Sequence to fold (66 residues):
Amino acid sequence: MSTIGKNIKKFRQEKGLSQDKLSKLADLSLNTVVKIELDESPNPTIETIQRIAKALEVSVDDLLKK
Fold:
């Protein structure tokens, strides 16, 4: 699993959000969130990362940290 995928999953679970809820908050498809977390889409766009970070109330840097 990519660092981004692991971090998104960690922050999402800490906030008690389902993948579906996160996808709605970030205005992304559920499929996009699932694929990023499972590392099936290992290079999401910066816009996608920014949307997820905003939805999770964390910084982009938080999602990129190893």
Summary: The chain has five helices and no strands. Residues 3-14 form the longest helix (12 residues). The chain has a mean pLDDT of 94. The two ends are 12 Å apart (CA to CA).
